[in-house]
Design goal:
- By secondary structure, this protein is mostly helical.
- Helix content is 78%, strand content 0%.
- The chain has ten helices and no strands.
- The C terminus is likely disordered.
Length: 260
C-alpha cells in the first residue's frame, strides 16, 4: 500500500470515528450531558480560548512537558551509554537495578518529593523527568548493544581511540534508537502531565480538566481532552520531523554481522 493510500485510509478511519461519536451523541435516548456531540465539542474550543485562557494553559503544559523530556534525555542518554558499554558482569548488575527502578510509579514518589521540593514547578518537572528517563536510557542502551562489533574492530585496526570510535561509530549507529526513545518518552510525558497537574497545580491542562469535572461541564472537558490528543500528535510529528532532518538514515532491519 502506498503512502498516499495509507494517509487516505487513516483520514477515513478518523472521520468515521468522529462521525460515530456525533451520531451516538445525537441518537435518541443518549444523555447528551454525558456525551456531547463532536460538533459541539469542536465549537466549544472557541469559547474556551476566549473565556478560559486555554492558550495560556496549553503554553504552561508544553513548557512542563518540554522540561521533563529535556531533563529525561539529558540524564537518560549518558545512563544508556553506561548500560550499553558496561562489561558483562556490571551490565547484569546495573541492568537489574535499573529494571527495578524503572518500574517505580513516579506518582508514588509525589508526596515524598513534595517534602523535599515543595509544591511548585520543580516537583512536577521531576516526575515527568523520572518517567522520561527510562525509555530514553533503555533505547540508548539497546542502540549501543546493536552496534556491529566488526565496525569497532575495523576502527581499532585503523588506530582509532575510544573517543574516535564513540563519535564515528557508536553514536551514529545508536542515534535512531535514541531518537525513538525520546519520542516514546514524549508520549509518556503527556500521559503523566495531566495527573501531575491534577495532583497539585493552578494552571495547565490537567488543572483545567479537574476544574471542569468538578463543575460537570462535560463539553469543556471533552474539548480539553481533544486538545491534549492534538498536542500529542503534533509533538510526535515535530520530533519525527527533527529526527529525519538530523538523522537522515534508518537502521531498521540492521543485523549485527558479528553474531553471524
Amino acid at each position: 500500500m502506498t503512502k498516499t493510500a495509507k494517509r487516505a485510509l487513516s483520514i477515513v478511519i478518523i472521520a468515521l470515528f468522529f462521525g460515530l461519536w456525533e451520531g451516538a451523541a445525537r441518537f435518541e435516548g443518549t444523555r447528551s450531558a454525558l456525551l456531547p456531540p463532536f460538533s459541539r465539542v469542536l465549537a466549544n474550543l472557541y469559547v474556551l480560548f476566549r473565556t478560559r485562557n486555554l492558550a495560556v494553559h496549553i503554553g504552561v503544559s508544553l513548557c512542563r512537558v518540554s522540561a521533563g523530556i529535556a531533563l529525561g534525555a539529558l540524564f537518560g542518554i549518558p545512563l544508556g551509554f553506561l548500560l550499553g558499554t558496561a562489561r558483562e558482569r556490571w551490565g547484569i548488575c546495573l541492568g537489574a537495578l535499573w529494571g527495578i527502578l524503572a518500574q517505580v510509579n513516579p506518582f508514588l514518589l509525589y508526596h515524598g518529593l513534595i517534602s523535599f521540593l515543595g509544591i511548585g514547578e520543580t516537583v512536577k518537572v521531576s516526575i515527568l523527568c523520572w518517567g522520561c528517563l527510562w525509555p530514553v536510557a533503555f533505547n540508548t542502551a539497546g542502540g549501543v548493544e546493536a552496534v556491529d562489533r566488526t565496525l569497532l574492530k575495523a576502527g581499532r585496526a585503523f588506530g582509532g581511540g575510544k573517543g574516535f570510535l564513540f563519535f564515528t561509530v557508536i553514536l551514529p549507529a545508536s542515534a535512531p534508537r535514541i531518537c525513538g526513545g525520546i519520542r516514546i518518552a514524549a508520549g509518556y510525558a503527556l500521559l503523566m502531565l495531566t495527573a501531575a497537574e491534577i495532583l497539585g497545580a493552578r494552571s495547565g491542562l490537567g488543572w483545567l480538566v479537574l476544574t471542569e469535572q468538578v463543575y460537570f461541564r462535560m463539553a469543556n472537558l471533552f474539548s480539553i481532552v481533544l486538545i491534549s490528543a492534538l498536542l500529542g500528535v503534533s509533538l510526535d510529528a515535530c520530533l519525527g520531523f527533527i529526527q529525519k532532518k538530523i538523522i537522515p538514515y534508518e537502521l531498521e532491519g540492521y543485523i549485527n554481522s558479528s553474531e553471524n
